[in-house]
Specification:
463 residues, 4-stranded antiparallel β-sheet, 3-stranded antiparallel β-sheet, 9 strands, elongated
Length: 463
Amino acid sequence: MPSENALLDLLSYQFSYPEPGIVVATCLGLANLSARVQENHQESIIQHLRNEAKKRIEAGEIPQFSGKSRDLLTLSRTSKKKETSILWIRDSWCVFDDKQLATQAERAARDWIQHVGVRFHVENKASRHSFASLTQLICRTVKDGRKQYFKDKEEWDLRVATAQQENAKRKASDAAIKSMIDWLLNEAQRYIVSGGRLNELSNKKPPANSPAENWHLRNFDQFNLRARPQQIHKEETKDAEGRIIKSRSWCENAGGGEIAAAVEQAKFMLEGIVQRAERGSEEAMAWLYHLSMFLTQKFWLVIEAQPDLACRLSATWNYVPIHWNDSPGTIKRIKAKTKRLQIPKLPPVSLKVQPDSPHQQAASRTISALNYLMRSPFISMPPMPNGERCKMFDERFPNWLRKAIDFADQQQSDTHFDEGILWETYAAAMTAKPDSPWKKQSRPRKAKEKFIQAIKARRTKTL
């Protein structure tokens, strides 16, 4: 949820009991904000007043200082019927100027004398006052309390200024968080529609001189130096008696070695080809296809050369990547080889949706986009102390993302989603903007059927 308005914490509430069984609560600081309820409903009255105060403050109203409910003067009398009358003159009277104060004091003194009489207690002391003397007493007491009132008001104004600064900071923070969440959603939807790259914020590292980024700038001898294994050097400084007073260890060619150098070289080459393929390069797509065919061939050559090792490893294999081969004869021969390797029975593959079809790509991108969102900051908030998921920013999320989060929470995993949730995610991406592929409220029935088939086909291959 968004941050609370700091001005709400400055408000205080005053209770009065005008009738038996009736409670009147007044919010100090906001004019004409009070509530009258039955005494048995007293628990909810503060929340009601706070909600109303929040609406008025968010509309731009600033709470005004009306005292600290400090009693300046207390009048009381108990009748023979044991009925008690009390009149409190609080520091909120200090807001009146002399003329207003005289009017209010005369009114209060007249009502008190008429209903109670001239004999009563003033601050627990028996006293006798006429209308005129009671009016003077009230005016004198309020004027004496003005000094402390204005001192309290200075503190109040300082607290209001501090609260407004805090509100400005929270508002800027909320705006930044909302902007980041909107950016994450836009990136995920852009990836679903156009296949752009998703960069996980939580996994970003500061820029560094990675060997995989600049190996192509080196000559043959420099690359051979990278192929040398890493060496740990230790330097020690000793005193005259031979005791070590300082030591330093450093690594030469960290992460190096022949295999590491070859992997870095191949990784950089493949990333370059993949980036070109993602931008629509047919040449790069052909490179990736031929490379996958070559690796598949090498894969089976290794299996044929090391059958015992392959049998031991096959217990942990879930599938064999046979979908790279189009020829039915090749698939038949591969299945014959798998029988000897004790690999579990391959699940049937639906031929309704081809692996490279647009629907299969859409399903794969949708799953990747949801996983990307689940691992992104602000959405994957750490759990609260009671173990429940933090829902601080849930109202910032669209409905399709809330459903996906709830489903993932129930499954305790964010790697598999329900077909309906994936379809809603895909449909939201296809209708997100005016220039999106689909119009609003457009959900082609055939597209949904093909999309669901693609999800089922993808799951069949990854079981």
